[in-house]
Amino acid sequence: MANPNVEVLYNQNITELIFINNNFVNSVSGKTFQTINPANKNIIIDVAEADKDDVDLAVNAAKTAFQSDSEWRKMDASARGQLMYKLSELIDKHKIHLANLESLDNGKPFSDSLLDIQMAVSTLQYYAGFADKIHGKTIPADGPYFSFTKCQPVGVVGQIIPWNYPILMLAWKWGPALATGCTIVLKPAEQTPLTALHVAALSKEAGFPDGVINVVPGYGPTAGKAIACHQDINKVAFTGSTEVGKLIMEEAAKSNLKRVSLELGGKSPLVIFDDFNVDEAAKIAHDAIFANMGQNCCAGSRTFVQEGIYEKFVEKAANLASQKKVGDQFDVDTQVGPLVNEDQYNKVLSMIESGKAEGAKVEAGGSKVGDTGYFVYPTVFSNVTDNMKIAREEIFGPVQQIIKFKTLDEVIKRANDTKYGLAAGVLTNNLDIAMQFMDNINAGSVWINCYDAVNVQCPFGGFKQSGQGRELGEEGLKEYLEIKTVSIRKNNF
């Protein structure tokens, strides 16, 4: 069902527009930017480029939609959930077209895009069920008072999503925001704006009132900054790099001290003990780093292997990587598509060269694939030490670093020796080891005898410079709620 010729849909003199107040409009400046197919570097389509003036219009629409007498604010919570569920059904109905757009724009294999869309549908449906289940508590306060809390939506929220999981990250952001009753100004990544704009059209079809959902494609230093510093945005949610997360936090503080939630980078350890089946370990570790071409914030990008099985593990890891089919994202046999763009491609190749220069041994891959698109062979390094650049910096590409260790205490210290703390995994048949690792590792998610077990029901987020706040699960709702405490003096009416 993948359409290798999906680009013909866009080989016309047309432009994708900005979505504001339930209408597609040109940018105020008239500027556009191009989105590129990373498999062949061909231009897909021109996209209207939002900047500060367009963000202002979107915020005004969202602000109006959040007025106390608006259709959105007067809507029953259950009706809000029904709208969300209808949107999820429309996404599911259009999943083939959306998956084609996602793969065309991002480069991930078509089957991976389909999986992402199924997860996005599940996310919206999960939060749709929460819409009429958000409530406060009664409190037995001291004194002659009847006290309770009321949960209220934060208001207008700015959301900035990355290019590695475009439609899934949209669902992660929209789900809790809409369930709580907020209104949205979303900036998709400039590399991958197409599915967000298509889902915006579906939100209008679903029946969302004017101004509730707005999508402003543009660049980080212009549209993104305008969102972060806008005086009428009450909260900003960002997924992306730690460096940009710091800038957003700074702008939020300097403007109106808006609430900020950040899901940032990682250099996550996966620790493998020698009591675990080495074949199974190699497969889990392989999937942990090579999923989505390694373009995954919580990828198991530091593979620690106990010395007793190290050599055998390296051999198996290299074999698995060497067998992966690299190719066009619409080829049914493709397992590894292109990286998202030239910048990412150059960065990953530079990191691979750094590993070679610092003495790591290439066991598989280690180079680009041809010159047609942004393809890199799945790469495995052995003999990696903690001080190497590839062991300390986030690569965000298909590069596995295999590091030797001896003892539990040693590996916990080494695994924690990083500015990041997004995720961690441990593979062992010893429950005591697993529990000690879980207790002492500094990470927002810890996976035992598995990896990347991200589920909509479970909160997700990081320690240290991997971010703050949580997405998914019931915890994800709290990022979009204000708590109002009400106390009534008894016998006073």
TrEMBL record:
Protein source organism:
Aphis craccivora (Cowpea aphid)
Which residues are the signal sequence here? none
Q: Show the active-site residues.
A: E263
Q: Upper taxonomic classification of the species?
A: Eukaryota, Metazoa, Ecdysozoa, Arthropoda, Hexapoda
Which ranges carry the Aldehyde dehydrogenase domain? 25-486
What's one Pfam family the UniProt record gives for this protein? Aldedh
Q: What is this protein called?
A: Aldehyde dehydrogenase, mitochondrial-like
**Record keywords, A-Z:** Oxidoreductase
What Gene3D superfamilies does the record tag this protein with? Aldehyde Dehydrogenase, Chain A, domain 1 (3.40.605.10), Aldehyde Dehydrogenase, Chain A, domain 2 (3.40.309.10)
